[in-house]
Amino acid sequence: MNRILKLATGLMTCLMLTLLILSPAGAAPAQKNLILATTTSTQDSGLLDVLVPMFEKQTGYFVKTISVGSGQAMKMGEKGEADVLLVHSPEAEKTFMAQGFGVNRRLVMHNDFLILGPANDPAKIRGLKTAAEAFKKIAQAGALFLSRGDNSGTHAKEKGLWKAAGIAPEGQKWFQQTGLGMGETLNVAAEKHGYLLADRGTYLALNKKRHLGLEILVAGEPKLLNIYHVIEVNPAKWPKVNHAGARAFGDFMVAPATQGIVGSFGTKEFGAPLFFPDAGKKPESLGL
């Protein structure tokens, strides 16, 4: 009897050792599907085409990317329809966090907004130092301005700039809202030879594919900084969200290796990066 017991114990030990040897180094996630709601600029610029496959390969998660404006992305988070957000509307993000919809908001990167327009520049804004000056001249000239009008981070920034200029453009003949994402609004502005506010990354990426005929007319003002955060949707409000996956994605976005890729993305094609890594920086250093 003892002999049989010893034999059985030995076989069990061998089986356990075999399973340990054959098992992968990292356990597969229990819930593999992860919903990422993000601004259109991260998708249109091509950055997520690089980062998402890397994340999936490293972690075993399958990412469903929903590219919408930052406002819509946060609405999805409020309803528990996304697991993690990558957005660029700081004031709206603060409200989102204060209302308890998100946890662990982390600084990821920035680029900047540009005021673009046709080469002939009918409003004569080229080289102006501030967006407020530029917007005033566009309004005074009655020159066509294309607004996204979609409650995105870009739209929120644009509304703030109009307010700072003391102008209410809604209802004016020269002011048109597309209700579209960044890439599509750039295409509309190109076709109509209008002005618009756009993020540098999307503009450079699209202009490379198809010369838009739009030029950078105003840039460089601190108010035009475009800052991105990653936010996990609060599992206390929505227990069914994939919080482990959301945390893994957030960790991935601020990891040194990922930050290095963010900082070099676009350099070969455009001679300069489209985004600048900010993980670990104090928000005050970016004017937040």
Automatic annotation (TrEMBL):
Any Pfam family the entry gives: PBP_like_2
Secretion signal, residue range per the UniProt entry: 1-27
Gene3D superfamilies: Periplasmic binding protein-like II
InterPro entries the record matches: ABC-Tungstate_binding, PBP_domain
Transmembrane segments: none
Record keyword Cytoplasm present: no
Keywords for this protein: Signal
Residue runs in coiled coils: none
Segments forming domain PBP: 28-255
UniProt protein name: Tungsten ABC transporter substrate-binding protein
Organism of provenance: Geomonas limicola
Source taxonomy: Bacteria, Pseudomonadati, Thermodesulfobacteriota, Desulfuromonadia, Geobacterales
